[in-house]
Every structure is written in C-alpha cells, then in structure tokens.
Design goal:
The structure holds two protein chains of two kinds. Chain A is an alpha/beta fold. Chain A contains eight helices and six strands. Chain A has a six-stranded mixed beta sheet with strand order 3-2-4-5-1-6, with helices on both faces. In chain A, helix 3 packs across helix 6 and helix 7 crosses helix 8. Chain A starts with a strand and ends with a strand. The relative contact order of chain A is 0.25. By secondary structure, chain B is an alpha/beta fold. In chain B, strand 9, helix 8 and strand 10 form a beta-alpha-beta unit. The chains are: A alpha/beta, B alpha/beta.
C-alpha cells in the first residue's frame, strides 16, 4: 500500500558536536522551564517553531532517546550516588515532545517511535497512516549523541546532534520528490536519514509530495 | 477516515510476577495473590517492594517463548504477514547495565541491543515479520502500541498485528523511581487513603490483533489519546488529560459513558496519579461502574502495563468476572465504585487506562464480540 504526503514545511539542523544556536531563550522565556530542557527538547522546540507548528498531532522519534541523561544516571549508579530526579524524569524517550506539548499547550495525540535505523522511516509510515484522518501533522526526529566517551561506541557518525521536522498532510496527488541520498559524505545518524533526505530534497518553487510505501 | 474493519484480540500470552501464564495471572488478580516482594538487590541499601519474573529461563528467552505461544494459539502458520508492534520504556537497558557495570565503559555495548529497538531485534532473529515498529512513551508504551494496531487494522493497512508489551527491571528504573520518592516497601494500595506509593515490576505481554474474530475473541472497540501539557511527572489534579483520553476512547467506540461496565484503572498507588484518575472517573462516569487497579498484584510493569492490563481486560470479558481492589481498606474518593471482592457480573464493555510521564495518556475500550 502507498500513501502520499504533502510536505508543507520542513526544517533541519545538525552539528558535529553541539548545535550552537537553538534560540531557546526566546522560545522558552521561563527560566525554570528552560533549565530543565534536554538537548533534544530544545531541538524539538526550535524545529517546531521553524515549521510554524503549534497545535495538533505529533509523531516524534529517536533511536537512542535521551542518551545524555541516561549516561548520567548510569555514572551516578556506578559511583554509588543518588540519581538526579530531573535526570530520571527526563530519561524517557518522549521527553522532548512532552516539553514541546507543555510549551504550546498541545493536548493532542503525541506518539514517540524508536525503531533503530528505521526510526524516521517508521515516523513517515505512521504519519502517513494517521494523515488519512485529514489533519496536518508534525513529524519530528532528533538524535543527541554528544556524550563523553561516545567514541567508545561510535565510529560511523560524524554528526552527534541532529534534528528534522516535516509538517505534512495527506494528498492524492502524484509524488514529486524521493528519498535520494544527498548527504554529500556527511555521516548523519541513519535513524534520521529518511526524513533528512526529504527535507534536503525539497523544491522551493513547486509542491513537494513524497510517496510512503507501507 | 471512515473505519473499514473491526479489530479483535484473538490470542494472548503473558508472564509477570503475578503468574507465568494468563490463567494464573487472572486467578491471582481475582483472588488477591500479589507477586510483589521486597528486594534489596537493585539500589544500594534500599528495599522497595517490586515485581520480578519467576522463571528458569532468561528474560529474552521468555520473550521468544511468549511470541511462540501466540503463534501456537493462532491460525497463523508464521508471522510473514504480521506487523510487529513493540511497546517498551527501557528496551535493552538491562543488557547495557550488565555490560557497563562490569566493564565500566561503553566499549562492549552493542547499540542495536541497547535501545528500544533491541526488543524487535531479538524477536526478529527468531521470527520473520512483515514489518516492525516500536513505541516508547514511558508507561503508555504498549497501550499506544495496541492503539496503533487498532488504527492500522481498522484502516485496512495490515492483515494482523502482534503487540508485545515488554519491560525488564533495571537499576536505572528502580533507582529512578526511588529518587522520585514514589516506591512503596509493601504491595501498593491504589486509591486507599493511606497509600504510600507504587511497585515497579517487569513483564512480557503479547496480544495478536486481527480483523476477523476467532473463538473467545474480544473486540478492541475504541482508543483515545491525549496529552496533559501540564508537568513531566505529575498529572493535572483534576485529571483533565485522563478525561480527554477516556472521552475520545468512548467516542472512537461509539459508546456512551453509561455503557462501560468496568474500568481497569491505571491506579499506580501514588498520591498524585490515583487522586487525578479518581477525579477523572467521577467526572465522566456518573453511573459509577466498577473500578479496580490490578497493580497491587502485578506491580506497575511500566511500558508493558498497557498490554498486560489489556489481557486482564479481555479475560474479564471472557470470564464475566471483574477483579477486586486488593489491599484497599479506606477509599480516598468515595465517589467511585471500588469493589473489595471479585464478582461475577454481566460485562459488555471494559475501559482500560494507561497514563505516563510527560502527560501521555491512552484509554482503550474492549467489548464482548456481538
């Protein structure tokens, strides 16, 4: 089965280690909230703003979730120290979109997918199926792999922070773009590649429609 | 989109601290035999009451066993037409901890067996599925997985789906909830005025969903989702998110609230959750259907809870008997109907609640096949 999605708006951001400017101070004026945000949450808030998405259903995904706080918790246990409550509450995979929902007072269905290297492909599939209901959805994916000693397990990714957002809706029109890899040798996390390649392939002057095969 | 197909639970299998099969699980939740025990092996000197599997097999061998049980019960020859849908909050964390605490570095950790997708990777090594997807929304993970199965089958996208709700205990989980101060040192007492917290547990719960009913099938009538947009760990005190999820589930099932005979509450035993959930149920169900939490028997199995309690909900409909609120003495909220003994009763529709960190809510409605 195939479902076509119109990409209404898109945004992406990445950096070898840490993305410097996510405009967090302006987007999250309350310092008490801002201080609790994870890197993925800051990226989610930045990307949602870039595609002008405030309220509606979201399909989010990450292969490794909140790796930074997960690592901090492991080190605390190893050192026989107590775990930070903020780290623990931020360790769940749906943390980033939960903060986004609080910021935008978004009470809608918000899903979090984690399917390894197929994470962004599965976000597209799930988003395509949900789009049949007729609403506009935000598809969002992040990876935040910039932790101390990541080189112990990472030898294939150049980009340790990466995020992509697609604002989409169902269409019956023919596909106009594909998943063509235009990474230009930059090794981004495979988990984000499907959505990232779509975001990079968008035409500025015509409609952008992708075919999602289920 | 107009719904094309009805969706049925046609086979189930589970293992938890409350039993290594569904029959034992249901007998124990109805008779009040708790699987929760104090354990001092997870977090330094602390002795929280938690729920561990009792099995001679490894956790992942049990996982494969549960999937095989589904295949044996079903009419399927294999899973080549089946969508595998995982719901888990920790994935392969148990494996990661074992390696990290032994070697004190990340070098031997295989990323494919660390993350949530580790569960699908393990299952896919044994069985060949049409496709797979994993949901991780903390304690609603497998409820959302069932919701997704309902969606893709009712829209006619896939032929059948195997939902696997799974979470194993880890030092991170036990230590994390201890840090939040919400773990009890006794089996929990959901909705009791003197409740003092929850019990974290592990479980594997599998449900096969198909578009055609089989003998003893139970219908998945509706699903409702919502987000609190309120706090990372605390629900809105009035249970606004819970009201929204339950209302949407009723709407999805084309039912009125008065048609619900029994509610399997999320009922963790924490002050905040039970208060909010009781307020939500009071607001939405003036006819006072029976409400109970089975977590005093199974513990809170986190990402597996939605699937495990979906199995209990299906058995309530199959057996026409709902379980008691074990360890409940004095209800805090007198406006909800909390039975102290299990009762045989005519039960057409059951609603099952799951709520999670981040204010993620999912309510499922199950019904007798008509």
């Amino acid at each position: 089965m195939k479902i076509n999605l119109e990409i209404i708006e898109s945004a992406y951001v990445y950096a070898p280690n840490e993305i410097e400017e996510l405009n967090t101070k302006e987007l999250v004026p309350k310092m008490i909230t801002r201080r609790r945000l994870t890197r993925a949450a800051k990226m989610a808030i930045y990307l949602a703003d870039k595609v002008s998405f405030v309220n509606g259903r979201i399909v989010y995904g990450s292969s490794f979730g909140e790796l930074g706080v997960t690592a901090n918790i492991l080190h605390s246990i190893q050192a026989q120290e107590s775990i930070s409550p903020t780290h623990f509450q931020n360790s769940v995979y749906n943390t980033a979109v939960s903060y986004l929902s609080m910021l935008n007072d978004n009470n809608n269905e918000i899903m979090t997918i984690s399917s390894g290297d197929n994470t962004s492909l599965n976000i597209l599939k799930s988003g395509a199926i949900k789009s049949l209901d007729g609403d506009t959805l935000l598809l969002l994916a992040t990876e935040t792999l910039n932790i101390d000693k990541i080189e112990d397990i990472n030898s294939c990714i150049d980009v340790l922070e990466c995020g992509v957002a697609l604002k989409v809706r169902f269409t019956e029109e023919e596909a106009t773009i594909d998943y063509e890899d235009i990474s230009n040798g930059v090794k981004t996390p495979k988990s984000l590649d499907h959505m990232l390649n779509i975001a990079k392939n968008l035409h500025m002057d015509k409609s952008n429609i992708i075919e999602v095969i289920l | 989109m107009k719904i094309k197909h009805r969706v049925f639970v046609t086979a189930t299998s589970s293992i938890s601290c409350a039993g290594d099969n569904n029959k034992t699980l249901f007998t124990n939740v109805c008779n009040g035999n708790s699987g929760i025990k104090q354990d001092k092996n997870y977090f330094f000197e602390a002795t929280p009451a938690i729920g561990k599997l009792r099995s001679s097999k490894t956790f992942y061998d049990e996982l494969l066993c549960q999937c095989q049980n589904i295949l044996n019960q079903s009419k399927l020859e294999d899973f080549h037409d089946t969508l595998l849908i995982i719901g888990s909050s920790v994935g392969g964390m148990m494996t990661t901890e074992d390696i990290f605490f032994e070697t004190q570095n990340y070098k031997n950790i295989n990323p494919d067996f660390h993350n949530i997708n580790a569960i699908a990777n393990i299952i896919n090594k044994r069985f060949n599925f049409y496709d797979n997807i994993s949901f991780s929304t903390a304690c609603t993970s497998s409820a959302n997985a069932i919701g997704y199965a309902h969606e893709v089958l009712s829209k006619g996208i896939y032929k059948n789906a195997l939902v696997v709700g799974v979470d194993s205990l880890s030092k991170t989980t036990v230590g994390g909830f201890l840090t939040l101060g919400v773990l009890s040192s006794q089996p929990c007492k959901p909705f009791d005025v003197s409740r003092d917290g929850m019990n974290v547990s592990e479980a594997i719960a599998c449900l096969l969903l198909e578009s055609e009913p089989s003998k003893n099938a139970v219908e998945v009538c509706g699903v409702g989702y919502s987000s609190d947009a309120y706090h990372m760990t605390h629900p809105h005190p009035d249970g606004k998110g819970a009201v929204s999820a339950m209302s949407k589930a009723l709407m999805s099932a084309s039912l009125k609230s008065g048609q619900i005979d029994y509610i399997n509450a999320h009922g963790t035993g924490t002050i905040a959750n039970d208060n909010a959930e009781a307020n939500a149920i009071t607001a939405l169900f003036p006819h006072k259907p029976y409400v109970s939490s089975t977590k005093s028997i199974t513990g809170h199995t986190l990402g597996a809870a939605g699937a495990l309690e979906a199995i209990i909900s299906c058995m309530i409909i199959q057996e026409q008997k709902f379980p008691q609120n074990t360890f409940l003495n004095i209800p805090e909220n007198m406006n909800i109907n909390l039975p102290l003994v299990s009762l045989d009763s005519k039960i057409e529709y059951v609603l099952s609640n799951s709520f999670a960190f981040g204010g993620n809510n999912c309510s499922l409605v199950f019904g007798k096949v008509k």
